[in-house]
Specification:
single chain, alpha/beta, Rossmann fold, seven-stranded parallel β-sheet, three-stranded antiparallel β-sheet, 32% helix, 16% strand, binds 2-amino-2-deoxy-6-O-phosphono-alpha-D-glucopyranose
């Protein structure tokens, strides 16, 4: 794991945007795995800004999102389809044929999950998988106890996750109980995994992911098995790391080193 620790959240976001931009410059037709959540909002703002400035282009890239709520149509304001449309796809007028999310409103969500894994494989697999982390250590919607060998499938959301995501829903709106999520095996097959976490509320999950045992108790700890995982943190999210000094020696101020 490569740990890049930046002082402020905006610095961590900028570093994450740079990692993605670099991947796109190296491979303009990259297959990107995309994430949602509040942490990702400034990342997409940064990508849109760089694309509009002509520094990068996503026009030839293909994308697959991590997850979607079961029962929500792509038009639903709280669906991840809408999140991506609003934040990235529409601002850059990306070709809808190249942007993929699983269909939460599929008649058969179990079959939809299998179709989605097959579509990722048919596209050649994911070059760069962007990830956030839940306060309980989830990645995508792989809640604690998820098989570390899981394919894309339907998962029941944890109470903590529904509570954390309630802020995106209206007071009287039901919060979905299920989601289709890329599995942990799907995520581990990506050629580069980039996880961004900011804020004190992520410190415990980050410490468990990086320094805790490899365990389904913290699904993100599966990234310890990933051959190329980059974890980008701000100081608050890094606060629980016992070996922080070492990580900062390897990558002072979150800078890439030539020998990594
Ligand atoms: C959500 C998403 C995850 C995301 C996480 C953190 O439930 N399914 O992909 O990483 O929770 O979200 P946030 O960035 O809003 O804290």
């Amino acid at each position: 794991m490569k740990l890049l620790i930046l002082a402020r959240p905006e610095d961590a976001v900028a570093t994450c945007v740079t990692v993605i931009a670099k991947a796109l410059v190296e491979k303009p037709n990259a297959v990107l795995g995309l994430a949602t959540g509040g942490t990702m909002e400034p990342v997409y703002d940064g990508l849109v800004q760089r694309a509009k400035a002509g520094e990068i282009s996503l026009a030839r890239a293909t994308s697959f999102n991590l997850d979607e709520y079961v029962g929500l149509s792509p038009e639903h304001p709280q669906s991840y389809h809408r999140f991506m449309q609003d934040r990235l796809f529409r601002p850059l007028a990306l070709d809808p044929a190249r942007t993929h999310l699983s269909r939460g409103d599929a008649a058969d969500p179990v079959a939809e999950a299998a179709r989605y894994d097959a579509a990722i494989a048919a596209a050649g697999g994911i070059d760069l998988q962007l990830l956030g982390i839940g306060g309980n250590g989830h990645i995508g919607f792989n809640e604690p106890s998820s098989s570390l060998a899981s394919p894309t499938r339907v998962k029941t959301l944890a109470r903590a996750t529904r509570d954390a995501n309630a802020r995106f829903f209206g007071a009287s709106e039901p919060i979905p109980r299920f989601a289709i999520t890329m599995g942990i095996a799907t995520i581990l097959r990506s050629r580069h995994a980039v996880l961004l976490a900011t804020g004190a509320q992520k410190a415990e999950a980050v410490a468990a992911m990086v320094e805790g045992p490899l365990s389904a108790r913290c699904p993100a700890s599966a990234l310890q098995m990933h051959p190329r995982a980059t974890v980008v943190l701000d100081a608050e999210a890094a606060a629980g790391l016992e070996l922080r000094q070492y990580y900062e020696t390897v990558h002072p101020e979150g800078q890439e080193t030539s020998l990594d």
